[in-house]
C-alpha cells in the first residue's frame, strides 16, 4: 500500500509529500534528474535505466515504465520557469535571448506577479512544501555520532543536500560526509569572503559606462592642485606608492608644455589618483572646489583609469606607472563592486614587478646617487611592499599567496621625509627614527602585520600536510598572537594600538616627535585609528579558524574571547 507521505515523529508536518494522484502535478525538487524509472524507484529495485526497463518488461507493465518528472535544484531559485523539459537547442536560444534583452526582461519579471506565469502555481507550492523552513540542529558533532543518526534527523546542519524518497522518508544524500574542524575553518573563511565582497554569491554592483559622469574637458589648474594637495595630506599614506612632490611637478609640467602627451601608464596613474581622491573626499569639500557629485567623478576617473590600463598593456609592457596605478586602484575596485578584478590586477602586477626586478632591489647603491635616483629606489621599494601586503590579504580568499618572501631581498621602505632637500644625505636615503611620522610609517607597520599572518599560514599548512592535530595548530596560533603582542609593544607611543580611554588625541604622549603632517592632528588620528583596526582584524584572522570550535571546546576559549574583544573594539573605532 502506497505511503500517504506523512513523516515519522519529530519532523515538521508541512514537509509531507502530496498524495499519489497529485504527484504528477507537483514535481519534487532534486539535485539531478533520475535515471531509473519511476516503478523501480518506488519498489527500490535495481533498474536497467532504459525505457522500458528490463524489470517492467518482465512484469508486463512496460506501458507504465517512465522516468519521474522533477525540478532540478539549480533551477529552483528562479521560480518564474516552468517544469516542462526543454531541449538543449531551446535552452541555448533562451539563454541568448535573456542575455540580449538584459535589464528589460528582468524589469518585466519584477513587475509581473508570480501567479500570472503559466505553471507557476504548482511549482511554487511544491517547492514550498519540500524546502520549507525547518529547525536547525545546533548540537555539536562532537556530542554524538553522526553515523548513527536516525533517518528523520535534520541534516541541514551538516552542510549536505537532503533527498526525499517516494515513501515519505528522509534520507541523506550520497555526498553527505562527516563534519570535522575543517568545516568550521572554511565557514569562517566564507563569511569573511562574503564581507569583503569577493565571493561568487556576493551581490556586486555593476555600473554601466553610461552611468559615469561625462567629464567636459579636464579639471582646471587650481582644482587639480587642490585635489592633489588633498591626496598628499589625507590619502597618500594609505598606499605610499607615490612621491607626491615629484608627481605634482609632473602634472604641472604636462599642463605648461603644449602638445605634451603622457604615455598610457602615466595617464592611468593620473586617473587613479583622481579617482581615489574623490572617493575619500567629503562631498562638501568637493563642492567648495566647484566639483559637485564627487562619487560620480570618482566613478568616471575609475572608468578612465581602467580603459587607460588596458591601453598601457601591462601584460606586455613593463611600466612603473601602471604598477603604481594598480596599487592605488585596489580600494576603488572594492568600492565600485569590481572585486573580481582585484585578483587579476594583482597577479599581473606581481609578475610584472618581478620581471622588473622589484623583488631584488638593493638597500642602497654602491656609489653615491643623485636625488632623483634615491627617490626612484624608494618608490620601487614602496611599490613592492604594497604588492606584498595586498598579496597577504588574498590568503583568506585563495588559501594561498603568490609572493614568497624567502625569494625576495628587497628591504622595507625607509622612514624618510618626502622633501627632496632632506630625503637624500651623501648620496643615500636619510632615514628618520621610528617615532617620526612620515608617509611610509603606516605601510611599514602594515608589512610587519602581513608577515605575521603569512608566517602563521605557512606553519599551519605544514602541520596540515603532516597530519598534525588541532592542538598543534592552536600552538602556532598562540605563537602568532604573541608576535602581535610584541608588535604592539614595539610601536611608538603616539601610534599605540592599545585602547587608551584616559588619553586625548592632543595629549603630548601620543604625538610624534616630528615629521610630515605632525601639525595635522586629524591625519594622525586617522592613521592611528586605521592601524588599530588593521591590528584587530589581523588578530581576528589568526584566531578565526578556532572560533567555531571554541563554542563547544573550552580549551580554545582564548580564541573566542580574542575574536569578540577585537570585534567590539573595531565597532567602537569605526
Automatic annotation (TrEMBL):
<feature type="region of interest" description="Disordered">
    <location>
        <begin position="78"/>
        <end position="182"/>
    </location>
</feature>
<dbReference type="GO" id="GO:0008270">
    <property type="term" value="F:zinc ion binding"/>
</dbReference>
<dbReference type="GO" id="GO:0000981">
    <property type="term" value="F:DNA-binding transcription factor activity, RNA polymerase II-specific"/>
</dbReference>
<feature type="compositionally biased region" description="Polar residues">
    <location>
        <begin position="148"/>
        <end position="160"/>
    </location>
</feature>
<feature type="compositionally biased region" description="Basic and acidic residues">
    <location>
        <begin position="100"/>
        <end position="113"/>
    </location>
</feature>
<dbReference type="GO" id="GO:0003677">
    <property type="term" value="F:DNA binding"/>
</dbReference>
<dbReference type="InterPro" id="IPR001138">
    <property type="entry name" value="Zn2Cys6_DnaBD"/>
</dbReference>
<keyword id="KW-0479">Metal-binding</keyword>
<protein>
    <recommendedName>
        <fullName>Zn(2)-C6 fungal-type domain-containing protein</fullName>
    </recommendedName>
</protein>
<feature type="domain" description="Zn(2)-C6 fungal-type">
    <location>
        <begin position="36"/>
        <end position="65"/>
    </location>
</feature>
<dbReference type="GO" id="GO:0005634">
    <property type="term" value="C:nucleus"/>
</dbReference>
<dbReference type="Pfam" id="PF04082">
    <property type="entry name" value="Fungal_trans"/>
</dbReference>
<keyword id="KW-0539">Nucleus</keyword>
<dbReference type="InterPro" id="IPR036864">
    <property type="entry name" value="Zn2-C6_fun-type_DNA-bd_sf"/>
</dbReference>
<feature type="compositionally biased region" description="Polar residues">
    <location>
        <begin position="1"/>
        <end position="16"/>
    </location>
</feature>
<dbReference type="InterPro" id="IPR007219">
    <property type="entry name" value="XnlR_reg_dom"/>
</dbReference>
<feature type="region of interest" description="Disordered">
    <location>
        <begin position="1"/>
        <end position="30"/>
    </location>
</feature>
<feature type="compositionally biased region" description="Low complexity">
    <location>
        <begin position="88"/>
        <end position="97"/>
    </location>
</feature>
<dbReference type="GO" id="GO:0006351">
    <property type="term" value="P:DNA-templated transcription"/>
</dbReference>
<dbReference type="InterPro" id="IPR050613">
    <property type="entry name" value="Sec_Metabolite_Reg"/>
</dbReference>
Amino acid at each position: 500500500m502506497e505511503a500517504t507521505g506523512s513523516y515519522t515523529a519529530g519532523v515538521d508536518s508541512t514537509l509531507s509529500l502530496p498524495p499519489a494522484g497529485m504527484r504528477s502535478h507537483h514535481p519534487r525538487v532534486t539535485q539531478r534528474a533520475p535515471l531509473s524509472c519511476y516503478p523501480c524507484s518506488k519498489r527500490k529495485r535495481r533498474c536497467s535505466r532504459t525505457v522500458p526497463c528490463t524489470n517492467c518488461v518482465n512484469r508486463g507493465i512496460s506501458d507504465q515504465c517512465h522516468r519521474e518528472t522533477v525540478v532540478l535544484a539549480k533551477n529552483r531559485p528562479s521560480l518564474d520557469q516552468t517544469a516542462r523539459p526543454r531541449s538543449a537547442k531551446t535552452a541555448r536560444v533562451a539563454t541568448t535571448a535573456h542575455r540580449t534583452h538584459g535589464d528589460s526582461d528582468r524589469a518585466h519579471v519584477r513587475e509581473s506577479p508570480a501567479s500570472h506565469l503559466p505553471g507557476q502555481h504548482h511549482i511554487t507550492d511544491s517547492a514550498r512544501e519540500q524546502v520549507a523552513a525547518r529547525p536547525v540542529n545546533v548540537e555539536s558533532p562532537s556530542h554524538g555520532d553522526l553515523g548513527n543518526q536516525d533517518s528523520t534527523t535534520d541534516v541541514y546542519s551538516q552542510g549536505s543536500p537532503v533527498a526525499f524518497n517516494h515513501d515519505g522518508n528522509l534520507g541523506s544524500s550520497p555526498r553527505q560526509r562527516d563534519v570535522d574542524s575543517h568545516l568550521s575553518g572554511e565557514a569562517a573563511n566564507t563569511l569573511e569572503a562574503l564581507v569583503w565582497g569577493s565571493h561568487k554569491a556576493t551581490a556586486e554592483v555593476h555600473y554601466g559606462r553610461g552611468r559615469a559622469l561625462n567629464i567636459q574637458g579636464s579639471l582646471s589648474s587650481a582644482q587639480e592642485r587642490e585635489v592633489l594637495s588633498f591626496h598628499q595630506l589625507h590619502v597618500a599614506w594609505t598606499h605610499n606608492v607615490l612621491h607626491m612632490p615629484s608627481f605634482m611637478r609632473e602634472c604641472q609640467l604636462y599642463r605648461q608644455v603644449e602638445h605634451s602627451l603622457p604615455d598610457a601608464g602615466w595617464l592611468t596613474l593620473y586617473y587613479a589618483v583622481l579617482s581615489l581622491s574623490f572617493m575619500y573626499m567629503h562631498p562638501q569639500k568637493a563642492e567648495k572646489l566647484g566639483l559637485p557629485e564627487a562619487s560620480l567623478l570618482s566613478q568616471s576617473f575609475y572608468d578612465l583609469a581602467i580603459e587607460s590600463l588596458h591601453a598601457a598593456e601591462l601584460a606586455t609592457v613593463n611600466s612603473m606607472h601602471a604598477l603604481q596605478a594598480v596599487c592605488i586602484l585596489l580600494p576603488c575596485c572594492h568600492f565600485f563592486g569590481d572585486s573580481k578584478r582585484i585578483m587579476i590586477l594583482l597577479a599581473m602586477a606581481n609578475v610584472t614587478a618581478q620581471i622588473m626586478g622589484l623583488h631584488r632591489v638593493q638597500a642602497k647603491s654602491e656609489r653615491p646617487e643623485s636625488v632623483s635616483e634615491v627617490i626612484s629606489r624608494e618608490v620601487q621599494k614602496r611599490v613592492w611592499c604594497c604588492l606584498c601586503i595586498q598579496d597577504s590579504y588574498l590568503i583568506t580568499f585563495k588559501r594561498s599567496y603568490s609572493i614568497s618572501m624567502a625569494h625576495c631581498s628587497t628591504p622595507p621602505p625607509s622612514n624618510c621625509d618626502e622633501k627632496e632637500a632632506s630625503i637624500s644625505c651623501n648620496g643615500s636615503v636619510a632615514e628618520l627614527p621610528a617615532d617620526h611620522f612620515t608617509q611610509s610609517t603606516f605601510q611599514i607597520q602594515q608589512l610587519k602585520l602581513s608577515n605575521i599572518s603569512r608566517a602563521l599560514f605557512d606553519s599551519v599548512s605544514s602541520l596540515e600536510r603532516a597530519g598534525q592535530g588541532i592542538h598543534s595548530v592552536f600552538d602556532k596560533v598562540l605563537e602568532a598572537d604573541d608576535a602581535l603582542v610584541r608588535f604592539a609593544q614595539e610601536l611608538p607611543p603616539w601610534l599605540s594600538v592599545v585602547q587608551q580611554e584616559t588619553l586625548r588625541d592632543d595629549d603630548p604622549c601620543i604625538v610624534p616627535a616630528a615629521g610630515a603632517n605632525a601639525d595635522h592632528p586629524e591625519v594622525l588620528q586617522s592613521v592611528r585609528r586605521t592601524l588599530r583596526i588593521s591590528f584587530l582584524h589581523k588578530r581576528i584572522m589568526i584566531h578565526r579558524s578556532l572560533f567555531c570550535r571554541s563554542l563547544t571546546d573550552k580549551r580554545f576559549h582564548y580564541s573566542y574571547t580574542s575574536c569578540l574583544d577585537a570585534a567590539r573594539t573595531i565597532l567602537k573605532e569605526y
